[in-house]
């Protein structure tokens, strides 16, 4: 008998949606403003207050947020952007679509974040920017990264897809670089179905992002059709169609209200996992660094096949048989054929990321999980390890 029945499969990353979100979406539908309107403006304001950033621009994904940020920096073809190999493909694809060349620095094997020592080794005369990813919600070493950026005159775009609640020395992730990019995809800590946010320190930068994100038009559509009468728009860039809808913001506003409550619940689950897995032959997340807050977006364990007697992929098969969902974050970027063929990247160039990517597995960590759900995951992990 599996730990859970098939019709009770524990879905990885299931969002916690409550009545407030449902009512707000219905209110948007009834108001007639379903596109980009007042709720998007409110969500931007609420979000910028939460992360203590002066400016924010909502868009329809973090992928869009990253793309807009990189285009807004005015980078040119051939410019190099250094990022991590232990990330979602979107971080790298955004660099490519901005016309730049991605360069991979390896990660620190303990924090799993981009290693500043490796960043320094990858700097060339063509390097223009660094794109750190706060992996799993653990902040990158921003003091070192910003010092490198200052020394070499580089821009910084932070991928904060995992890092809404993350802080580093009292400041929120995303407020260090020129831009911080957030995701509200279903599995993320705040979800809007699909959605993203760019934050910036500079008003002119956020204006550029807003214009680029709506066709390159100089005014928002919802202002254009307001009761102030029709206004002509001017196209000032070849922009994109990346705006967020009020229906999405309606969900986001209430999700954001509950961000700290959900974070607390994930901390409890995290502690239960740490306690339960400490004695097992798996690797567990390192403690958070002093004066930082880890957002607890992903709880990952490492399966060394020698120590565990089972490899990661076999473990995934067994866990699925127990009807527990899991994720892999991530197979390292150089494992994928497109990047190998286009950039000639070799696995041995970023050995830590490749090794982690082959051993890592992410267990369910949604705030929606009950104590019984967590107990099922713990039981299933023990069974899969034959412990
Ligand atoms: C989810 C994710 C993205 C992309 O976010 P979307 O909102 O789905 O576009 C980018 N980077 C990282 C690290 C992510 O986890």
How would you summarize this macromolecular structure in one to three sentences?
With 387 residues, the chain is an alpha/beta fold. Helix content is 40%, strand content 12%. Helix 6 links the parallel strand 4 and strand 5 (155-159).
Annotate the secondary structure layout.
Blueprint: H1 19-31, H2 38-51, E1 55-59, H3 62-72, E2 80-83, H4 89-97, E3 101-104, H5 116-122, E4 127-131, H6 142-152, E5 155-159, E6 167-168, E7 171-172, E8 179-183, E9 196-200, H7 203-213, H8 221-224, H9 246-257, H10 259-277, E10 292-293, E11 299-302, H11 305-308, H12 312-321, H13 337-343, H14 351-359, E12 360-363, H15 371-384
Parallel strand pairs: 2-3, 2-4, 4-5, 5-8
Antiparallel strand pairs: 1-9, 6-7, 6-10, 8-9, 11-12
Pyridoxal-5'-phosphate binds at residues 61-63, 87-88, 90-91, 133, 159, 161-162, 183, 185, 196.
Instruction: Measure the end-to-end span.
Output: 17 Å
Q: What string gives the helices and strands in order?
A: HHEHEHEHEHEEEEEHHHHEEHHHHEH
- Counting helices, strands and paired strands, the structural category is alpha/beta
Bin the strand percentage: 5-15%
Shape: globular
Describe this structure in words.
With 387 residues, the chain is an alpha/beta fold. It has two domains: 239 residues, Type I PLP-dependent aspartate aminotransferase-like (Major domain) (Aspartate Aminotransferase, domain 2, 3-Layer(aba) Sandwich), CATH 3.40.640.10; 127 residues, Aspartate Aminotransferase, domain 1 (Alpha-Beta Complex), CATH 3.90.1150.10. Helices cover 40% and strands 12% of the residues. The strands form three sheets. A seven-stranded mixed beta sheet has the order 1-9-8-5-4-2-3, with helices on both faces. It binds pyridoxal-5'-phosphate.
């Amino acid at each position: 008998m599996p730990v859970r029945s098939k019709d009770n499969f524990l879905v990885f990353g299931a969002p916690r949606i409550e009545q407030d979100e449902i009512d707000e979406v219905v209110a948007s539908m009834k108001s007639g403003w379903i596109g980009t309107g007042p709720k998007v403006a409110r969500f931007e304001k609420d979000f910028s207050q939460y992360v203590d950033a002066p400016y924010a621009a909502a868009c329809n994904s973090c992928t869009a947020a990253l793309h807009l940020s990189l285009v807004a920096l005015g980078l040119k073809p051939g410019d190099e952007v250094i990022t991590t190999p232990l990330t979602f493909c979107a971080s790298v694809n955004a660099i490519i679509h901005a016309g730049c060349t991605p360069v991979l620095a390896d990660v620190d094997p303990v924090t799993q974040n981009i290693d500043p020592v490796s960043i320094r080794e990858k700097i060339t005369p063509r390097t223009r920017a660094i794109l750190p990813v706060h992996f799993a919600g653990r902040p990158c070493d921003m003091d070192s990264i910003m010092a490198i950026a200052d020394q070499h005159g580089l821009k910084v775009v932070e991928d904060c897809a995992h890092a809404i609640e993350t802080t580093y020395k009292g400041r929120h992730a995303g407020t260090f670089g020129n831009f911080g990019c957030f995701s509200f995809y279903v599995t993320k800590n705040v979800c809007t179905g699909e959605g993203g946010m760019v934050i910036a320190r500079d008003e002119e930068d956020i204006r550029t992002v807003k214009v680029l994100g709506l066709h390159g038009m100089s005014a928002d559509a919802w202002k254009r059709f307001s009761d102030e009468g029709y206004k002509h728009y001017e196209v000032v860039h070849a922009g994109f169609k990346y705006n967020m809808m009020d229906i999405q913001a309606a969900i986001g506003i209430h999700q954001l209200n509950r961000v700290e409550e959900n974070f607390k619940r994930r901390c409890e689950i995290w502690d239960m996992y740490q306690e339960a897995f400490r004695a097992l032959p798996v690797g567990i997340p390192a403690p958070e660094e002093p004066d930082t807050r880890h957002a607890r977006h992903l709880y990952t364990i490492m399966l060394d096949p020698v120590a565990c007697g089972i490899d990661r992929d076999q473990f995934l098969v067994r866990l699925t048989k127990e009807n527990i969902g899991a994720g892999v974050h991530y197979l390292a970027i150089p494992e994928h054929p497109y990047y190998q063929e286009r950039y000639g990247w070799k696995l041995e160039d970023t050995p830590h990321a490749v090794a982690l990517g082959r051993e890592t597995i992410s267990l369910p960590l949604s705030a929606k999980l009950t104590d019984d759900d967590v107990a099922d995951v713990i039981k299933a992990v023990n069974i899969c390890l034959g412990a």
